[in-house]
């Protein structure tokens, strides 16, 4: 989980900060009020080459994780085994040769 957060913070800092501020400012309604900002973070991270490679090589684990989140929206902690499988897979992905500093992502 930390690796994913590090990549997100490094390459999508602006989007993460805006989303974090929205969540902090709307403790009871953040799921509705911050949805667009959440989607901005998702779009940023999904366009990064490292994330793309991980999602490609761990697509089955990622699909199962997303399915679990949809089915347990009120209890995301119940998807911990799914996220553990996905992250376990992600750590085995060979990232040599993958661009880690895309020019299109300003810092």
From TrEMBL:
The GO annotation for biological process reads: cellular respiration
According to the lineage, what is the superkingdom?
Eukaryota
What InterPro entries does the record point to? CHCH_domain-containing_protein (IPR052848), CX9C (IPR031731)
For this protein, the record's PROSITE patterns field holds: CHCH
Q: List the Pfam families hit by this protein, alphabetically.
A: CX9C
- What residue intervals traverse the membrane? none
UniProt domain IMS import disulfide relay-system CHCH-CHCH-like Cx9C: residue ranges: 5-49
- State a GO cellular component annotated for this protein: mitochondrial intermembrane space
- This protein is called IMS import disulfide relay-system CHCH-CHCH-like Cx9C domain-containing protein
Gene field: CHCHD5
